[in-house]
Amino acid sequence: MQIMSSEKSAFNFGVLKKSPFFASFSEKQLMLISEKAPCTFVYKNLVVSRQGEFSATMYLILNGRVKIEREGMDGENIFAAELCDGQVFGESAMLNKELHQGTVTALEDSELLVIDRSLMMEIIHNSTPEEIIDIFSTLSEQMRAVQNREFHEVLTRRTLAAQMEVEKQRALTEMVAGMAHEINTPLGIINTAVSIMARELAAPKEVTIQRAADIAESLEIMQRNVERAHKLVQNFQKISVSQLIEEKELFDISLAVEETVSLVLVNLKRSQIGVNFVNRLAFEQKGWVGYRGVLSQILINLLTNAERHAYPNGIGGDVDVTIELADDKHYRLTVQDYGKGIPKENQPHIFEPFFTTARNKGGTGLGLAIVHNLVVNVLKGEIRLRPDQQKGTAFQVVFPRVMPD
User: Among residues 145, 150, 143, which one has the least CA distance to residue 81?
Assistant: First the structure.
């Protein structure tokens, strides 16, 4: 463990009493822990313990926050829990002298109380039978709570994974329907232009300047609309393929965002929604080796969220999509609407799975949870509400310019 410093604890055992884990411990037991357990100070982003390492130590968070992650069967890091003041971790390893089942990392500078197996054995040795029963009851309850929490996390993760596949298929289906509708326009114009040319060329006539101009105009209209239809098909092909194949590739990130916006806009126009795309990247900043499909899915979900919640029932409005640098090492993608906004009491919960204010309208509460999962776990970035937003809602997605391996 990488630490700032370690020293004997100098706090009153009342701090221990406030922790749910130690609530049933006697004053004598708490005093012993207070006298003998050292404190450890851990810097933000440093590892407290690693998965697979042996340990006979548990920790109480005196102040700060840590996260627990596990490596899955496919090598993917799986988020298990976030703990804060008064909570403990490592009790199973301490009790059973087993390997750590997860990696614990400090989310901010944190102060931890270190309780090893030998100290816990001393406490048990000096306890009455009733106190020993209370200790093991507390340990069993804590371990059961951990198992329940992990079960809930696994269930939520699998639900999100399944819903992400559903969302991909839904988005592709809507884009196919929207593109079929959109592509009918240039095809209809081309058909009209062909009819005009066929009529002009049906019978031999003298080629006058006016007649030549009419034919040239028809050819120009045909070419322009063929290019329009071709661009629609190309954009759809790029996005649909990238949705099905999640591999890192080098591409122009600003162009990818613009292409996604143009395809989603086909459907948004039916709800009277206009999208303004702003590219603030210099030429040399546009190349990104990343996941085109994941980036598209995030943007599609955020724009769909604006359609459903910012401008419900087809009331219409504007959305601004901006790609820029957050700093030298990160991109920032902002999706801003000027609609209904999110009530303050709901803001802390918007990325929680199954949280929705539109369940009676078919909402699952997974749209933003999927976005959060993709941003944090795939892009290794973060998503947040812009705090200074006066009207509507602005989501900011910040992610690395250089994706970690």
Answer: 150
Give CA separation, 39 vs 94, 174, 294, in Å: 17, 56, 42
CA distance 210 to 189: 21
Q: How do the domains of the chain map onto residue ranges? A: 5-127, 166-400
Q: What are 91's two structure tokens?
A: 């009790």
Copy the structure tokens of residue 254: 């600003």
Q: What is the pLDDT of residues 181-220, one digit of tens each?
A: 566 666 777 777 677 667 666 666 666 776 677 677 777 7
Residue pair 104/89 in contact (Cβ under 8 Å)? The answer is yes
Q: Are strands 317-327 and 273-279 parallel, antiparallel or unpaired?
A: parallel
Hey, what are 145's tokens?
């709570």
Give the HSE-up count for residue 121: Cα atoms under 13 Å, Cβ half-sphere.
9
H/E run at residue 110: strand 110-116
Predicted TM-score (pTM) of this structure = 0.53
CATH code at 5-127:
2.60.120.10
Which residues 6+ apart lie within 8 Å of 244 measured at CB? Answer: 168, 293
Q: At the top level of CATH, which class does the domain 166-400 belong to?
A: alpha beta
